[in-house]
Write a structure and sequence with these properties.
mainly alpha; elongated
Amino acid sequence: MEPLLAHLTLLDVIAVGWFMVCWIGYSVVADFTPVHRFSASYAMGRYRREWMCRMVERDIRIVDAQIHGNLLHGIGFFATTTILAVGGLLALLGATERAVEVLAELPFVQPASRVTWEIKILLLVLIFIYAFFKFAWAFRLANWYAIMIGAAPLARNGVCEDDQYVERATRINQLSAAHFNRGIRAYFFALATLSWFIDARVYIVASGLVLLVLINREFRTRVVTSI
C-alpha cells in the first residue's frame, strides 16, 4: 500500500476518505436504521405488498407479468451498461499516457502522474464492479419473483389477509428493489469520482453534493408525501 499512497497527496487521501464516509455513511443510515421508514423506498415497499395482494385476488395475471417484465428490463439495462462502463475504463488504462497528456493541457485540471491516473481509474472500476454485482443480484431476485407470480395461488375467499405466500413474495420483491437502489447509488457516487480527475477539492465538493441529492430524493422528495 505504501508505494501507492506515495503517489497521492494528503488532499487526495482526505478526498477519498470523505467520499467513503459519504457513501458508506449514507447507505448505513438509509438502509439499516429506523430513518429508513421515512424514505421513498420504504413507502414504495408498501405498494409492492399491495401489488402482491391484488395479484393473488385475481385469476388473470397478464398485467402483473407485463409490469414485472418492465422492471426486469430496467434492471437488465443497467447491468449491461455497467459492464460496458467497466470495459471502457479498462480500455482507458491502456491509453494512460495519452490521457494524462490531454488532461495536462487543460488549465483547470490538477496535474497527475501515470500511477495517480491509474489509481483513479481503478477506483471507478471497483465502483462499477460493485454496481454490477448489485444489479446482477437484483436481476436474479426479480427472476425468482417472476416464478412466484406464476406459482401464486388465489387468495382464500378472494381476500388477501396475512397471507404467508404474499409476505414471502413481497420480501423477495423488496430485496430486489433494495439491491437495485444500491446499484443506482453507486452510479451517483461514480459521477462524483469523475471530478477527482479535475482536482481533489472538487472531488470533496462533488461527494457532498451527491450526498445532498440522495438525501433530498430519498427523504425530502414530494413522492414520499404523495404516497
